[in-house]
Structure formats: C-alpha cells, structure tokens
Specification:
Blueprint: H1 6-11, H2 19-30, H3 38-48, H4 54-76, E1 104-106, H5 120-125, H6 128-136, H7 142-160, E2 163-166, H8 168-183, E3 195-199, H9 227-234, E4 238-243, E5 260-261, E6 264-268, H10 274-281, E7 287-292, H11 298-304, E8 307-310, E9 330-335, H12 338-348, E10 363-365, E11 375-378, H13 388-398, E12 403-406, H14 415-428, H15 430-435, H16 449-455, H17 461-481, E13 487-491, H18 498-504, E14 508-518, E15 535-544, H19 550-564
Parallel strand pairs: 1-10, 3-4, 3-7, 11-12, 11-13
Antiparallel strand pairs: 2-4, 5-6, 7-9, 8-9, 8-14, 13-15, 14-15
Amino acid sequence: MKKNTRRDLLKIGAAGLTGLAAAGRASAQEEGAGTMTPARIAEAEKLAGVAYTEAEREQMIPTIEDQLTAIQQLRAFEKPNSLAPAQTFDPRLPGKTYPTGTESTLRTADLPQRPVPADEADIAFAPVAQQAAWIKAGLLRSRQLTDIYLARIERLDPTLHAWITVMPDRARAEADAADAEIASGFYRGPLHGIPYGLKDLFDAKGAATTWGAAPYKNTPVKDEDCTIVQKLAGAGAVLLGKTTCGALAYGDIWFGEVTRNPFDPREGSSGSSAGSASSVAGGLCAFAIGTETLGSLVSPSHRCGGSALRPTFGRVSRAGGMALCWSLDKVGPMARSVEDLAMVMWALNGHDSADASSLATSFSYAPMSDFSGLKLGFNEAWRENATEAELTAFDRALALGAEVVEFRLPELPSAPLVQQLLAEAAAAFEELTLSGQDDLMVWQEEAAWPNSFRAIRFLTGVDLIQIDRLRRRWMQDMEAAFEGVDLVIGPNFASGMLTPTNFTGHPCLVMRAGFQETRPRTIFGAEQAPDAAPAQTPVAVSLWAPLFEEAKLLAFGAALEQELGVADTRPVL
C-alpha cells in the first residue's frame, strides 16, 4: 500500500469544510479507496468530538460526499487575500448610541519654546510635537530630520534588524516637498515633514510588500499606496520605508532575522509590530504604524518601551494591507509619547469605502488636566504579582483626581475565541498549507503559523458558529462592564483584558510605566547563558475605554505619562 505524504493528502482535499469531512478524506486516501465509509466516519468522529450510530453514519455518506465535492469547487475558486468575507464584524451593539460624524480635530498641549539641540540624537528622540514645533517655526527642516533618521537606520539597523525596506529616495523627495510647501506658507498640520515607518503589511509605491514571510519575499514592487499611507501623505508625513513584522503578523521572526529590543538587543522585540516598536524605541523614526489582531501592538510596545494606540475596530482603514483576520485586524500608531499618538490618530481617522469593515466616526482630541468627573475602573486583584513599575503606575493613575470604581471582567470563557482567529488566519493563507509553501516559513515550532494553520482545519463549522455566538455574548457583557466607567487601567496581560477586548473591538492604550531588571529572553529557541548580564528593560501598562472613546484614553494617558516621568529614558545603542 502506498503511503501518502501530508502534502498528498492536503492536495486531494484531506482537510475540508469540517473536521468530520477532513478526517474522513484523510482516512479514505490512506486506504486508497475513493468512497466514504461508515468506518472512516467513525474515525473522524473522534476529531469532531461527536458519536453517531452505525445507521446514522450510513445515512450521512451521500451528504458528506456532496460536501467534499463542494469543497473541491471552493478550492478551485481564486480567493486573493484582499477578498473579504461577506459577513463583516461590527463592534456596535443594537440599541446603543455611539459617536457619529466624520470630522477630526486636534489640539495639543502648549510647548515651551526650545532651541533645536546640537546633538542629532536629541533631535531624533524628541517627541513629534516638539519636532513639529521646530519645523513649523522654520528652525528645523524636514530634510534635515529625514537625513538624521536615515543615518540612524543605516548605523543601527544591523543591530536591531527592524527594517525590511528603506526608501531613501522617496523619503528625501517627500521631505524636500514638505520643506518647499512650508516655506511657501502652506502648512498641513503637526505631521507635516515628520518621518515615519510603515509595518510591512501595507502597500507603498516603490517597494514590495513581503508580510515578513519567506514565501512572499520576492513579490513585485507595488505601484500604489494603501489608504493609510495616502492619509499620512495628505497630512505631510514622510515615509522612510517598511519596518519588519513577524511573518504573517505573528512574533518577531521574519525571513531575514529576529527583530531586537533596543534596550537589550540580545532579546527579540516581541511582535508582530516588531520593527515599528523597535524603531520607535531606538530613535530610528518619529512614529510608526503597527497593527494588532491579538497583542501585536501591545506586546512589542511592552517589550521595547514605546506607546501604542489600538483604536476601536473599524476606525482606521485597512485597505491595501494584508488581511490576517478580517473580523479582528486593527491599525494603530506607535510613538515615544502618548500625545504623539493623538496626532497620528488625527490623520488616520476616517471612513474608507475600500474597507468592508470601515466605520464613520469623529475624532476630537484635546489635553485634559481636570479628571474630577471621570470614573476610572480598577481591580485590586491586579496588584498581585505586579512589578514595582506597574504598582507605581496604578497608584499615580488612581491619584490623578478621577473617581476610582471597581471593574470586573465578565466571567466568560475567552480561550475558545482564539479558535476563530486561527480559523480566519488559516483561511486567509490556505494556499500556503495546500501547496506546501508553509515549509518555507522560518519559524516552524508548535506555536507557529504552519502548525496552527494545519490543526485548525479540524475545527467544525458548527463550532465556529458557536464561538461567534460566544463573541456576541462577550460584546454584550463587556458593554455592561463598562457601564458607568470611563477608563480602565491594569496590567497588559495579567488583567485578562487583552483577548476579550480585541474580540469586542474596544480601544486600548499601552504606555511605558517604568523599568525592571531582566535577563535576555529566548531567541530562536536558544537560551542565553545562565550568567548573562541582566539589563534594565521597559515595563508597560494598558488603559482601556468604551468603544470610540480614544480621545479620553489618550488625554488621561498623556497626563499619567507626565506624572510618571519615564517616557524620555533612551536605550544605549
């Protein structure tokens, strides 16, 4: 009897619409037969977690064979990554009122007049607000700032591995154009002339979009910009190039290397917005664009010490970007200062008909100093096992003048939700699994995409619907949990908020809280020597808000950042 390889089985459709059909086909092919039998169905029942009688198995044979035929037709239909499902996720619940409108307004804190430093590193690490003030006043040119960042990328990226594609010609051309406009009296706003990095999940004219994955390393150069690059260009921002991302938006391992943490380059930066976080923290750009499906803004910001905003699902367009999970992907800014995030959000906000899940809602930011009318949610249990930096951040936040109220996470299971993420991701990259190109991916451990894509195919369609119903319950109960609460502060991961708030679409701000002494973490499965010298690495905390309340989230975060006084600490590179 010929033993078929996994590839053979997949190519003839061993993994199908449901776990039941998938296992049945695998068994059938291994035995060399062409029809479904009760015995094969009985074996498949073990994967699906069900039990049928012999008569029931006989009865369902024609139905399963019809399913397999339909699946083969489905496989033959071309499905580009840009083709979104007909059913789109909307975080808004019926019967509830949410902010409407389309305008974006921005008012930032007044800065004292400061001369431009002589040290280029001081210029590179200055907040966007300060750089913008210098540029607007004619004290700093965009071309000068752009050249500073390009030089830092050239010098430091061999250590950090944070850039996939640097675009110096485009960057300098855009900087020169910005300088000319400003000199003529045409000022577009606080991002005019400010250089940034773009996570390499998004298209930009003149560069390939590799998604950080070896199978897509040699894709053709794009001839147009994605929506967010167009919006940032309209605000006058200067694109430096493409930052690294973990392959297919997972982790910090891409086809070229492991992106590193500027505060301790012996360890990875975490991911998947790995290069954006590392570049921001290392002073290789003024701000950067990242994405989050389940922690990809929060985790690398926690590791590298930057700030990031995960907006309400649907607020920022994803058109022209890679889809990992259509119902979960979110685009957000990353920076060294909380208020800088507000400036970028001001430019990114807005409905886009090219994104099936895009929502129209206004964004209006202004700094706040009086929080006496604000209700801040906190759970005292989150103090357990918290670091000293986290405890300090909690105490400073609770002392800012807001009324502190108890916050409790709904008592619902969250682990099943992740199966929906895996199913969508496996669908988005089905061709990798079926063709065997998943073997080209650098990361091949149990937790990596190739194994997850294979295994999730045995989740049944019925189970997937039930998970979506659980997600609806989470939306309802989270809405109730936020009733009478303006903001919540807590640990990034130990709070249990990361997974459910990603699935409910709630906004999150992650910001530096301080530092802790750590030993370098694992890279490529190789442990550092036991006597490796420890390093001072960042610690972050998260704040969450009701849907579309990003402005309040940012205003409170900016005030807390000022109280903590740790955002200006730089890595030594």
